[in-house]
Design brief:
Low-confidence stretches of chain A: 1-5, 187-202, 228-242, 250-254, 324-334
Mean pLDDT of chain A: 78
Shape of chain A: elongated
Oligomer: heterodimer
Largest interface: A-B, 67 and 86 residues
Number of strands of chain A: 17
Mean pLDDT of chain B: 84
Structural class of chain B: alpha+beta
Distance between the termini of chain B: 53 Å
Number of helices of chain B: 24
Helix content of chain B: 40-55%
Strand order of the largest sheet of chain A: 2-11-10-6-7
Chain lengths: 334, 661
C-alpha cells in the first residue's frame, strides 16, 4: 500500500464531499428496523397517517444522511505547529478546522489513527476551531501527525460520516532525558589552563553537577527545589542524588561545560548516550552554566538560554537521522 | 481528554435537557391515550417520568434492575386486572404506554434515550388506531418534532437547545418532499396482513343487519358522518334521496333480520333521471355500500345482491371512495323469485292480533294488492301517528301497541308496522334500512349524510310492477322528508347539537370544518391502492404494478437525495458573510495602493493600512478588530446567534461605508 497518498498533504486540505464516506450507525440500523415495524403496522391497520408518519421519519433519515455528510464536506483542515516534546511524553498536535460556510459544524471527532489520541470540537459558522491531538511520542526524531480520521454523527446520530486526512503536521521529539551526573567540566582551552586563585571558595562563579565528594554546604538547594517539579514522578532519592548541583566557585575549575558524546562510556548504546546528553543539557541549562554540545560530525559552541537549549536538543533528536530538518525543509519548499 | 470522550457515542450519559425533551415527546403521545386509558395507568406513567426527573438531581434515586422488574410486574398485573387480557388493541396500547414510562425511568445512556424515541413513535402511531383527524395529525407531528429534537440533542449535547430544535425543524422540513413521494408512490397493499385483534374495530357506528324497536333511534342521536357525497351537476330533490342499505326480510315479532340474498347481475334500470356522484364512505365495519335507487353502476370489487343491496367482499374498515351512477325514479324490476315472495309474506304466529284483524279486513274488502296498498296508505295518512325520537318502550305486540296505543314512534316503528300490515293482508313486503336526505355543506357544496339521517322504510311487491317503495313515516309526518329530522320532531332537546335550529353560527363553523375534513379524508386518509393506480394513470402509466411503482419511487427518491445534496453542499461553499466582507475590505484597501500580502494576518495588515491611510485609520482598525472577533473569537459559544448576526451586519455596514478622506 505504499503509494503517494502516504505522503502528507501540504497546506490546507479541503474535504471534498467525495472523500467523505458515510454509513448508518448502529442507531441508524435500529432506526431502520423501527421504520419497518411502523410500516408493517400501518399496512396492517390501513392507517393513512401511519404511512405519513413512517414516511416523514424516513424522509428525516434521508435528510439526516445528507446533513451528516454536509457536516464534514468542504471543511478545511490544516495542521498547526506543534511544540517539541521529549520521548515518552505526548506530542500535542494542533489541527485547525476552518469552516467557511454560514452554518455551524458541531460534534466533529478527530482521531489520530494508530493511537488513542482523539478530540471533539465544534466549529461555528464562518469560524475556525482548534483540535488538539495528544499522540504518544515513543522515539526521538520527527513524529509525523500521520493519518487523522474526522468523524461526525451530527445531526441525528443515525449515520456516521468520516474522512481521512494526512495533514503535514509533525512534531520534534527530543530524546528521553536520562537524569545523570553532569560530567566534570572540561578544561577550557581558551583560558590557557586553570588559573589558580589563592582563596579557595569565596567567589561564586556558577554551578556544576553534584559529586559525592562535594560538601553539602556547597549544594545549590534552591535549584534542587526548582528541579523537583521537572522530575516529580521519579524516585525522590534518585532525583536528589543525581540532580543536585554544586555551587562552583572561581578558581575551582573552568566554567565552560562541554557535553561530549565521545566521553560517554562505549558500553552505552547510541540512544542511551543521547538520552544521557539530553539529561545533561537540561541539567546544565537549569544550572545556568554555559555549555556546548559535541556530537560525532558536529558541535554546538557553548552558550545558554532557551534557544541554545532547543538547538542542542534538536541536534540530539535528529542525530543520525537520514534527513535532517534542513533537508526536510528543502523538500517542503520544492 | 475527558472520560466521556472515550466512551462510545451511544454510551454517553444523558442530561436534564435530554430528559426534558424525551418527557415532552412522551407526554404528547400519551395524552390522547390518557382520555381512554384508566386513570391509574396515566398516573403511574406520570409518576415514573417524575421519578426519572427527580433522579436528575439525586442520581442514587435511579432504580436498580430488581426494582424496575417489580414496577414492570405491578404494571403488567394492573393491565391484566383491568382488561383481563394482555393482547388486543386496548390492553396492548396500555402496555406500550407503561413501557414508555418504564423506559423513561431507566434511561441512563444515549442508547436508552434513542430507544425511548423509537417507543414514542410507536405510541404516536397507536393514536391513529382511534382517530386520524386533523388535530390528531398535528398533535403527533408536534410529538415527532419534539422527539427528533431530542435525537439531535443526543447527537450534540453541548449545543444550545434552541439551535437543536431549529435543526430538527429543518430536518423535518427537508423530509417533507421525500415523505410526499413515498406517500404517493410507495406500493400500497390493502391490509390487514394478518388477523387483527378482535376489538380492533369496536365502537364503529352504523346500520346493522337487524332492526329492533329503538335500534335506529339510538343511531340517530349520533352526529357522526356516515358518508359524504359529491354530486356531479344538479343536486337532486331531497325527497328522492333514499340511500339504500340493508334489506330486512325476516320478522320474529320483534326483530327484523336480513334475508339470504344471492349475487345477481346488476339490472339495467329503465327511464328515470340519471345522476352521477361519488361517495366517500366512513368505515362502518360492514359490507354495505350506499347508493341511491336505482344503481346503474357497480363500484370495483362490489357485488349486487338480488334484493338490491350493493356489498363489498370485505367489510369496509377504511374510508372508501367510490363513483356511482343512479337513475332516480326508474321503473322497478317486475319479476321476482317465488321463494323470495313467500319469504316476504312470512309472519310469526300469535303476534299483533289487532293489526292482523285490520289487515284481514282490508284484504277482504279489496279486489287486489293494489287496493290493499291504497287502503294502508290512506290509513297512515289519516291516522296521523306521531313521530318522536323518544319512542316508548314497547311490549310483546310491538305493532299493535304502536298503531293503537302509543301512536307515536320512530321510523323503524312505522316501517315495521307497515310491512307487517302488508304481509298480514297478503301483499309481499320487506323493510329497507338506509339513510334519507342529508344536508348540503355550503362551503364546499358537498352533501353530508350523518348517522342521524338513518331511516327505515318499506318496499311492497305488486305483481305487474315489481318492488315499489313506500315510506310510511312520510305518510304520517310529511315534514320528515322536507325539513329533515328537526322539523319533524319539533323539539330540540333530544336532537344532536348540530341539528338544532338555534345553533346557526355553530353550524357555519361546523360546515367549514367539515369541508376541510372532507378534503382531508378524501385526499389524505382516502388515498387507497385504487387512487394510487389513478395517479399513475394520470402520469401516463396505465395499470402500474408494484414493480413499476417501486422503480418510479426509487428514481424519485434518488432525484430528491441528489437535489437535497446539491442544495445543502452549495450552502457549504457559499462564502461566509464575514469572509466576503473582509475580502471586500481588502479589495478596497488594495485599490488605494495597500494590497494585502499573502502572509499577512489581519492585525498586521490593518496596522500597516492604517498607517498608510491615516485619514481612515480609525475605521480600518475597528473593522479589523471586529473581523478578528467574529472570525477567531469563541464560536458563538456564549453569545446568542442574534447578537452574532448583528455584529456581522455591523461589519458589512462598516466595510460598505469605508471612505478615504
Amino acid at each position: 500500500m505504499a503509494r503517494p497518498a502516504e505522503a502528507p498533504e501540504r497546506g490546507a486540505i479541503v474535504l471534498g464531499h467525495r472523500r467523505v464516506y458515510i454509513v448508518p450507525s448502529r442507531l441508524g440500523l435500529f432506526f431502520g428496523a423501527a421504520l419497518l415495524i411502523l410500516l408493517v403496522g400501518s399496512i396492517n391497520y390501513s392507517l393513512a397517517l401511519g404511512f405519513a408518519l413512517t414516511f416523514l421519519l424516513a424522509g428525516m433519515g434521508i435528510a439526516g444522511m445528507v446533513q451528516t455528510t454536509r457536516n464534514l464536506a468542504r471543511l478545511t483542515v490544516r495542521a498547526a505547529r506543534a511544540e517539541p516534546v521529549f520521548a515518552g511524553e505526548r506530542a500535542r498536535f494542533r489541527v485547525l478546522l476552518d469552516n467557511a460556510a454560514a452554518y455551524d459544524r458541531p460534534e466533529i471527532l478527530l482521531c489520530r489513527l494508530g493511537s488513542d489520541a482523539q478530540c471533539r470540537v465544534d466549529v461555528g459558522p464562518g469560524a475556525a476551531a482548534e483540535a488538539e491531538l495528544a499522540v504518544p511520542a515513543g522515539r526521538r526524531g520527527w513524529l509525523p501527525l500521520g493519518r487523522v480520521m474526522l468523524e461526525t454523527r451530527f445531526p441525528v446520530g443515525l449515520f456516521r460520516a468520516w474522512s481521512y486526512v494526512r495533514p503535514d503536521g509533525r512534531c520534534l521529539v527530543y530524546p528521553r532525558p536520562e537524569p545523570g551526573a553532569l560530567p566534570p567540566p572540561a578544561p577550557s582551552t581558551q583560558a590557557g589552563g586553570a588559573r589558580m586563585r589563592a582563596q579557595g571558595s569565596d567567589d561564586f562563579s556558577g554551578l556544576r553537577a553534584y559529586q559525592s565528594s562535594d560538601s553539602p554546604r556547597h549544594v545549590a538547594w534552591k535549584s534542587v527545589a526548582r528541579s523537583d517539579t521537572l522530575y516529580a514522578r521519579g524516585d525522590t532519592q534518585h532525583v536528589l542524588r543525581n540532580d543536585m548541583l554544586t555551587k562552583q566557585f572561581a578558581g575551582e575549575a573552568a566554567t565552560e561545560l562541554w557535553l561530549d558524546y565521545a566521553t560517554l562510556p562505549a558500553a552505552l548504546d547510541p540512544e542511551a548516550r543521547l538520552s544521557r546528553l539530553a539529561g545533561w543539557v537540561l541539567a546544565a541549562e537549569r544550572g545556568g552554566a554555559s555549555y556546548g554540545l559535541r556530537l560525532p560530525g558536529g558541535e554546538i559552541p557553548p552558550g545558554r538560554g532557551e534557544r541554545h537549549r532547543a538547538a542542542c536538543l534538536e541536534a540530539l533528536a535528529l542525530f543520525g537521522a537520514p534527513s535532517g530538518p534542513g533537508e526536510a525543509r528543502a523538500e517542503r519548499a520544492a | 481528554m475527558s472520560a466521556a470522550q472515550a466512551l462510545a457515542p451511544d454510551r454517553r450519559p444523558i442530561g436534564a435537557r435530554d430528559v426534558a425533551m424525551l418527557a415532552a415527546g412522551l407526554a404528547i403521545v400519551v395524552a390522547p391515550h390518557a382520555l381512554r386509558a384508566p386513570l391509574w395507568l396515566t398516573l403511574l406513567t406520570a409518576a415514573l417520568v417524575a421519578w426519572r426527573a427527580a433522579a436528575l438531581t439525586t442520581p442514587r434515586l435511579l432504580p436498580s434492575s430488581g426494582l424496575l422488574l417489580a414496577v414492570a410486574a405491578v404494571g403488567l398485573i394492573g393491565v391484566w386486572l383491568q382488561y383481563r387480557a394482555i393482547f388486543g388493541r386496548t390492553p396492548g396500547v396500555a402496555l406500550l404506554v407503561l413501557f414508555g414510562g418504564m423506559k423513561m425511568l431507566e434511561s441512563r445512556s444515549q442508547r436508552d434515550a434513542a430507544a425511548l424515541v423509537f417507543l414514542t413513535w410507536f405510541l404516536a402511531i397507536t393514536n391513529f388506531l382511534y382517530t386520524q383527524s386533523i388535530p390528531t395529525a398535528f398533535g403527533m407531528l408536534a410529538a415527532v418534532a419534539t422527539s427528533v429534537a431530542a435525537l439531535v440533542g443526543l447527537a450534540a449535547p453541548r449545543r444550545a437547545p434552541r439551535a437543536n430544535l431549529r435543526t430538527a425543524m429543518l430536518l423535518l422540513g427537508q423530509a417533507v418532499p421525500a415523505a410526499l413521494v413515498l406517500f404517493l408512490l410507495f406500493p400500497r397493499v390493502q391490509g390487514p396482513l394478518w388477523g387483527l385483534p378482535q376489538d380492533a374495530y369496536s365502537g364503529i357506528a352504523g346500520l346493522s343487519d337487524s332492526m329492533t324497536p329503538g335500534s335506529l333511534s339510538q343511531l340517530t342521536l349520533s352526529d357522526a358522518i356516515a358518508f359524504r357525497v359529491d354530486f356531479k351537476g344538479e343536486l337532486p330533490p331531497r325527497r328522492t334521496l333514499y340511500w339504500r342499505g340493508p334489506v330486512l326480510w325476516d320478522f320474529d315479532g320483534r326483530t327484523w333480520r336480513a334475508g339470504s340474498p344471492g349475487i345477481a347481475a346488476l339490472p339495467e334500470p329503465s327511464n328515470g333521471t340519471r345522476i352521477e356522484y361519488s361517495v366517500l364512505l366512513e368505515p362502518h365495519n360492514r359490507n354495505w355500500l350506499f347508493a341511491l335507487e336505482s344503481p346503474a353502476l357497480l363500484p370495483p370489487r362490489a357485488r349486487y345482491l338480488d334484493d338490491g343491496e350493493i356489498v363489498t367482499l370485505a367489510p369496509v374498515r377504511a374510508r372508501l371512495r367510490y363513483d356511482m351512477v343512479s337513475q332516480l325514479e326508474a321503473d322497478p324490476v317486475a319479476d321476482e323469485d317465488p321463494r323470495n315472495l313467500r319469504r316476504a309474506l312470512a309472519m310469526p304466529a300469535g303476534f299483533n292480533p289487532r293489526a292482523r284483524a285490520m289487515a284481514a279486513r282490508w284484504h277482504a274488502e279489496s279486489s287486489g294488492d293494489r287496493q290493499v296498498l291504497a287502503r294502508a296508505i290512506e290509513y297512515f295518512r289519516v291516522e296521523r301517528l306521531q313521530y318522536t325520537t323518544l319512542p316508548r318502550l314497547l311490549g310483546r305486540d310491538t305493532v299493535d301497541e304502536f298503531l293503537f296505543e302509543s301512536r307515536e314512534g320512530f321510523c323503524e316503528h312505522f316501517a315495521s308496522a307497515f310491512a307487517f300490515l302488508m304481509r298480514a293482508a297478503g301483499v309481499p313486503a320487506r323493510v329497507v334500512t338506509g339513510y334519507q336526505g342529508g344536508d348540503l355543506n355550503p362551503v364546499d357544496n358537498r352533501f353530508t349524510v350523518r348517522q342521524a339521517d338513518a331511516h327505515a322504510w318499506t318496499e311492497v311487491y305488486l305483481v305487474d310492477r315489481g318492488w315499489i317503495r313506500v315510506d310510511p313515516t312520510v305518510l304520517s309526518v310529511p315534514l320528515r322528508l322536507d325539513g329533515g329530522l328537526e322539523r319533524a320532531v319539533g323539539e330540540t332537546a333530544r336532537l344532536p347539537l348540530m341539528m338544532r335550529p338555534d345553533m346557526a353560527w355553530l353550524r357555519t363553523l361546523r360546515y367549514n370544518w367539515e369541508a376541510l375534513t372532507y378534503q382531508w379524508n378524501l385526499l389524505v386518509l382516502g388515498y387507497s391502492p385504487e387512487r394510487q393506480r389513478d395517479l399513475m394513470t394520470w402520469f401516463g402509466m396505465r395499470d402500474a404494478d408494484w414493480l413499476e411503482l417501486a422503480s418510479t419511487l426509487l428514481a424519485a427518491l434518488g432525484a430528491f437525495v441528489l437535489a437535497l445534496s446539491a442544495w445543502l453542499l452549495r450552502q457549504a461553499t457559499r462564502p461566509d458573510p464575514v469572509q466576503s466582507a473582509w475580502r471586500r475590505f481588502c479589495g478596497k484597501l488594495g485599490a488605494r495602493g495597500v494590497p494585502r500580502a499573502p502572509h499577512e494576518g489581519p492585525r498586521d495588515y490593518a496596522e500597516r493600512a492604517a498607517r498608510s491611510l491615516p485619514s481612515a485609520s480609525e475605521p480600518i482598525r475597528r473593522i479589523a478588530a471586529l473581523y478578528i472577533a467574529l472570525r477567531y473569537g469563541p464560536a458563538g459559544a456564549g453569545g446568542a446567534p442574534s447578537a452574532r448576526a448583528q455584529s456581522v451586519m455591523q461589519l458589512r455596514r462598516m466595510v460598505r461605508e469605508l471612505r478615504f478622506g
